[in-house]
Amino acid sequence: MTTLNYTRTELGPEFAEVYCDRGIALDDRGEYDSAVLVFDKAIDLRPDYAEAFACRGIAYERLGEIKSALADYRRQYDLGSRPPWLIEKLQTHGMLS
Q: Do the beta carbons of residue 90 and residue 58 sit within 8 Å?
């Protein structure tokens, strides 16, 4: 499992993309638990980062944690990122009217 230590004062929101990219690489290697932790860091640095919520949602879904995945997908939607796959997934689960 990958560990990344930092304090919020050490890194600014511009590092959120770096963490998101790292999480994507971990997800691609099947290291979903580690990917979730790294996406957590990206979201901590930039709480309005819709892509990080989408990516963490995908990792949660691959782990079988559907409620967590749907919560992240809903947050992505609320942040204004609304690709067709997301709308379909939220509608399928009754999360959009």
A: no
- Enumerate residues 6+ apart whose C-beta is below 8 A from 85: none
pLDDT digits (tens, 9 = 90+) for 50-91: 999 999 999 999 999 999 999 999 999 999 999 999 999 999
- Contact predicate 72/60, CB 8 Å: yes
| Contact status, residue 42 vs residue 24, Cβ threshold 8 Å | no
**pTM as predicted:** 0.87
Question: Which residues, 6+ apart, have CB-to-CB distance to 27 below 8 Å?
Answer: 35, 55, 58, 59, 62
Q: How confident is the model at residue 33 (pLDDT cuts 50, 70, 90)?
A: very high
